[in-house]
Amino acid sequence: MSHSLAVATEAGTAELPILATPAAVAAHVAHLREQGRTVALVPTMGALHAGHASLLEEAGRHADAVIASVFVNPLQFAPGEDYERYPRTLAADAELLSRVGAEAVFAPSPEAMYPTGPNTVVIEPGPVGHTFEGRIRPIHFSGALTVVNKLLNIVRPDVAVFGEKDAQQLFLIRQMVAQLNLPVRIIGVPIVREPDGLARSSRNRYLSPAERASALVLFRILERAREASAAGVPEVLQIAQSAIAADDVAELDYASVVSEQTFQPVPDDFQGQARLLLAARFGGTRLIDNALLQFSPHGGAR
Ligand code: PAF
Questions:
Q1: In this structure, which residue's CA is closest to atom 3 in ligand 1?
Q2: Is the CB of 211 under 6 A from ligand 1?
């Protein structure tokens, strides 16, 4: 069920092991452990881009060997979402993985991950999992946490690396790991952007040129919010709402400033660091973005 894919690298052709079953990846990791090597896992759904490359590079700073998983997880898509059309580009993904020095890729089929059909035992993400993304996509975080939990149990890495673009997912994964005493260290990696500021996302490829141009409003809001954050939370939210309202294409799902500790909205008079969350629709594509801001008269912004 597993094979190697020959991929072109700057140094010639390399073989990247493609491991298709939990047993194959577990055996591969056992072999790494016998060699005394530590292991990092970077879970992905494939369609890899520069944002994923930065996750893999960060993973390489924390462990001797980096395993990526590429799995479009049916459990985290509701009927009518983009599960079927989600891009599946394993050959191109393998080239990027090889280029950034990944040790192997775990690329199971849905049947290999869910041999008895969709899980009947799932992770309940708790109250935060039903706000923001979880309010709009009710089963999303249960599905995402369930597959992350399975991946952690299958690979048993020392560290696992996730992007800050999915800030709510990262918060919930940290909460799951802490509350279920999972023996892994979670590392968050800052958002990687296109040269014009659009956050890298596998879903950007769905955007038409007009939607792609409109989507820059998210980055413009974050930049203006950073400059205005000393004025306070209501001012920042006003910037977001009026910028989206002024755009012909964008439709706001939510803009909110949340606590890093609780992921709850902060009060209007909040001072300190908090995260501005944005979610908006551009035609049929939903995009999310966020930035950590400093709300205090004298503080600087990240
Ligand atoms: O962030 C993602 O790409 C997915 O939600 C993850 C963590 C790989 C789980 O399917």
A1: 44
A2: no
Look at residue 169 in the predicted model and tell me its pLDDT.
98
What distance in angstroms lies between residue 45's CA and the mean position of ligand 1's atoms?
Answer: 6
Average confidence (pLDDT) over 84-97: 96
| 202-295 fold | Pantoate--beta-alanine Ligase; Chain: A,domain 2 (3.30.1300)
| pLDDT(228) > 90 | yes
Q: Which residues of 252-290 are buried (b: 16+ CB within 10 A; e: fewer)?
A: bbbbbbbbeeebebbeeeebebbbbbbbbbbeebbbbbb
Banded pLDDT at 2 (limits 50, 70, 90): low
Query: Is 52 designated active site?
Result: yes
72 CA: nearest ligand 1 atom: 10
- Which of 279, 40, 56 is closest to 165 using CA atoms? 279
The per-residue pLDDT for 297 is 63
